[in-house]
Amino acid sequence: MAETPLRPSSHVLGDVGQTAAALVFKKWGWTADLINSDYGEDLDCNIFVNKRRTAFCFKCQVKSSHADSEYVRRLKSGDISVTIRVSLAKLWLISYYPVLLIIYLDDTEEIFWKNATQYLRENLSQLAKDTLTIRVGTEQQLSLSQSNIEKSIQDFYAQMLRLSSPSIQSSIVPVIMPGYKILEPMKFYDSLDIEWISEKLNLCIELRRMLPEHLPTWTTALRSMDLKSFPCWMVMMSGADIESFDNKIIEFIRYAATENNFMLSDNQWLSFICKPIRILDKEINKLSNSYFNQEVTGWWSYCYLNDIKSDYSYAFDLPKRCLLPRPYHAGLFRSN
Fold it and tell me: Could you give all domains of the chain from N- to C-terminal order, each with its CATH number?
């Protein structure tokens, strides 16, 4: 009789730790997919901001601890000591994505984290041996660290793009709906209180123009007095906090829609088309010298109907019936 295979408790505990960590990320609205191949990372994650995917991704190695754990030890101070191979640490250092070290404690079901990539960059001297130790503080609870992890990941990509003073930028085109009519250029700047926006929202606003050939094809529905370029608001903020910037864009749109008189009729409303958010160098106000376009979100659209709502699928998405082939009717070609 064939021997029944047994599943060791270490495998069970490892799966529990990975699932518990992934669940925390998913509660934030992010994705966290299990990596089946075992080459040093267990989770493949993407950051979402206000339900929209960003270009920020990272991976995690999850270490699950039990009383007799060989690689994870609880120190007298309460902190956690984790031992990893130097060969693996070197691979993390040359990766084009950051790696987080996640610790799951079986006895308390607590989860802690540390940016392993950042730690290794700051402690290169530990790479001289076969193994190294990373100390994780118990104040770094995963469930309470969403904003800290976002900043940590964003800082990694800002460094990778060699941005000494990162800033965030997007452009907004207000459109009168349902006629898809872009506002007249003179109304763009005169209708805003620039000082209030700078003081309250910490945003810098400039009046710019966008060339139609640089816009996606669905913007051909827009109507403007000037066919050569479209007027827009360019919105900028220092730093690399994408979620904060996106929330401030929503506040700016709410202000622009409610504090100004655009002489709309009863059956009209305002829609605001937003270009992809980009990270660039504040000092030189241009993209870094790299192969990346530095866009971290896609195109989006908001409307104001008593409140700010996403209206991209309503205003600009193709109707589903246009994507289906029309049925062939032989009778259409029959002569009388």
Answer: 9-159 (3.40.1350.10), 165-319 (no CATH)
